[in-house]
Amino acid sequence: MSVRELVILGTSSAVPTRRRNHNGYFLRWGDQGVLFDPGEGTQRQMRFAGLAASDITRICVTHFHGDHSLGLPGTIQRISRDRVPHTVRVAYPGAGEEYWRRLRHATSFHDTDVVLPQPVGGSGSCPVGEGEPFTVTALPLRHSLPAYGYRLAEPDGWRMLPERLGHFGVRGPDVSRLLREGSLVLGDGRVVDLADCAEPRPGQVFAFVMDTGVCAQAVELARGADMLVIESTYLDSEEELAERYGHLTARQAGRIAAQAGVRLLVLTHLSERYEEDEEERFVAQAGEEFDGSVVLAADLDRIPLPARR
């Protein structure tokens, strides 16, 4: 199976710290590479992580606060400098078109035509996927300016059952034919359907929810996700601040994961106010609401997507 993992490039919130860079998350999905919210320093973090501009096939920007987007100019210019040959689609809130244009052409450089803008908008689901092994859907979140979360969903498939294939005598190239065509006529005239030799296999789902207050759309984005990457800017003691600025506490992030039936919860986007010895409290508070696996992201971590269900 192809590699599917999240590479953490940065995990701070508005202010980077000595241990936490501004935001940046790279999802490797086989031959696809999705860069989320490139903040300042993204290029350098990619070098540390062994990633190249040519690895990027799509960029998703949740909103146009600097810690989520000021790495765009350098990233795009690097795509041009390295002569990346393939199309790189960039999804971003259409309401921030002015900011997109400023960042897209922030300084002089030899431009490239492979960068394809895909503004998202509206109050409902906004599909932006095209020619990829997953669908990409954006939904609006609740923040101080237009912000969208993203959901990547692989189509459901089938898991072949060797004992059933053996029972019907289906082998070799006929296995692929059965999977591709849905039924097969055997040499003795019997018809074998795919459901006779396979069981449904849910496609994998990845959800990315950044700056937001508590809202139904965050749960909808994360519904049934194998991995949810979500902001957890504050601890319980700053819940009032979280509400005021449109952010989440670790506990609220855990509650969203529980409501959505998530498998793996990845907490990130920590306020610079917290010292290293306080960080275990993020996992503890989220874990009081969510009984699944919880990971507190750290810069340059590599977190594999959970194995298929």
List keywords for this structure.
single chain, 309 residues, Metallo-beta-lactamase, Chain A, 2 domains, seven-stranded mixed beta sheet, 11 helices, RibonucZ/Hydroxyglut_hydro, RNase_Z/BN, zinc
- Amount of beta strand: 25-35%
CATH level-4 homologous superfamily of the largest domain: Ribonuclease Z/Hydroxyacylglutathione hydrolase-like
Largest sheet: 7 strands, mixed
State the separation between the terminal residues, measured CA to CA. 14 Å
CATH topology of the largest domain: Metallo-beta-lactamase, Chain A
Q: Average pLDDT value?
A: 95
SSE series: EEEHEHHEHEEEEEHHEEHEEHEHHEHEE
- Radius of gyration over C-alpha positions, nearest whole angstrom: 21 Å
What's the CATH architecture of the largest domain?
A: 4-Layer Sandwich
Short recap of the structure:
Helix content is 27%, strand content 27%. The protein is α/β, with parallel strands linked by helices and 309 residues long.
Structural account:
This protein has helices at residues 42-49, 66-69, 72-81, 97-104, 162-168, 173-181, 194-197, 216-222, 239-245, 250-260, 280-287, and strands at 4-10, 24-29, 32-36, 58-60, 88-93, 115-120, 126-127, 135-140, 148-153, 157-160, 183-185, 191-193, 198-201, 205-209, 227-231, 264-268, 293-296, 302-304. The protein is α/β, with parallel strands linked by helices and 309 residues long. It has two domains: 4-156 and 202-304, Metallo-beta-lactamase, Chain A (4-Layer Sandwich), CATH 3.60.15; 159-199, no CATH class. Helix 8 crosses helix 10. The mean pLDDT is 95. Belongs to the RNase Z family. Its cofactor is Zn(2+). Zn(2+) 2 binds at residues 67-68, 211, 269. It catalyses: Endonucleolytic cleavage of RNA, removing extra 3' nucleotides from tRNA precursor, generating 3' termini of tRNAs. A 3'-hydroxy group is left at the tRNA terminus and a 5'-phosphoryl group is left at the trailer molecule. Homodimer.
